[in-house]
Model the fold of this input.
Amino acid sequence: MVRVMASGVFDILHPGHLHYLKQAKDMGDELFVVVACDETVRRHKHEPVTPERMRCTMVGSLKMVDEAWVGREGGEIFDIVEAIQPDIIALGYDQRFDADELRHRLKERGLNVEVRRVGECSEDLNGTRKIINRIIKDHSRGAADEDDRDR
Done:
C-alpha cells in the first residue's frame, strides 16, 4: 500500500481542490489529507471563512480521501509527517513549498518520503481568492444595479 499525504487550507472547496486531491490519490493507494488549523491559516493567509473542524469534515467526506486530519499549530510539518508516515507527499501546483528544500529536510530527519507536485487545474474558479473576489464583484455590481433602480 502506497500512502500519499496532501495538505492545504480547503477554506471554500472548489474545483482546484478536487483536482489536487484526485491527482494526489492517483499517486498511491491511500490518501491522507492534512487540513491547516485555523491559527496557521490566520498566520499565513487570511481569517478562515470555515472553521478547521468543518473544513476537515468536508475534506474527509470526499470520495478520494481516506483520512483527513487537522494540522497542529506551532508543530513542525514533520511531526504530522512522522505520524502519518506517507510514502509520497503531494504538493499542490500553487503551494509555496520548495520541493527540493522539503526533500532535503525530510532526508535530514531520516524520513524516506518522495515529494511530487501536481499539475495546475484549468477551471476558471480554481482558487478560494478567485471565488471570493468574484462574489464581491458580482455583489457590488448587483448593489449598483439596485441603486440605479432606486433613482
Summary: The mean pLDDT is 87.
